[in-house]
Amino acid sequence: MMEVFDGIRTLLAVRRYQDRPVPETVIRKIVEAGRLTGSAMNLQPWHFVVIQDRDTLRRLGALARSGPYIAEAPLAIVVAVEKTGYALSDASRAIHSMLLTAWSEGVGSNWVGFGGLEKVNALLAIPVKLDVLAILPFGYPADRIGRGKKNRKPLGAIAHRERYGRPFE
Known about the structure:
Blueprint: H1 4-10, H2 24-36, E1 46-51, H3 54-63, E2 75-82, H4 87-104, E3 108-109, E4 112-113, H5 118-124, E5 130-139, H6 155-158
Antiparallel strand pairs: 1-2, 2-5, 3-5, 4-5
Helix pairs in contact: 2-4
């Protein structure tokens, strides 16, 4: 099993997937990870719609400007949120839990959306009282990817000790 820090250190966005289904046990684990994530006042303001139907995946790919590759994924989870104060941050936490859980099982994903997904409500019969925050396509990576090869700012450029401007060493 992958250690948590290794998952965070190596997690990469995956946009190309093998034509291979994600097992039901892994799907359930991914959704459970989202469900079990903490939320402000335990409101759990999220709803997860699990999509495996090829036609629906193609239609989602057509609706998401930043994620046409959803059409080629064997699985997607649409994350809809209630319109409450902490829903955005709570659902973001749940999304990250799902991405890390999938990654620990060898399944890649990426966050698609963050607005502009209103037409998804009608496609999936999601009530208008909910906002579609993201579509998460999932699948086994089609390309060999180097785990952990990230282009990130050095720690000293973004971390401070006690006060802004004091280096974190």
